């Protein structure tokens, strides 16, 4: 049995675009380019973020959920 290193597949550090706005009290959705394609993740932030805002993925909460921060304009 081999141990898989999924660091190359991690969305952390990738830039994405918000596709469903992040409200103050729940997740939105971010589309991130990973593994040669685009994948959608549930996106969390400590402040609301509008649709189409470019963000940086700062942490992975679970396999399909990430923390994001808006990129500077």
UniProtKB/TrEMBL annotation:
**Region Disordered: which residues?**
1-20
InterPro entries recorded for this chain?
NA-bd_OB-fold
Q: Where is the composition biased (Polar residues)?
A: 1-10
Q: State the name under which the record lists this protein.
A: Uncharacterized protein
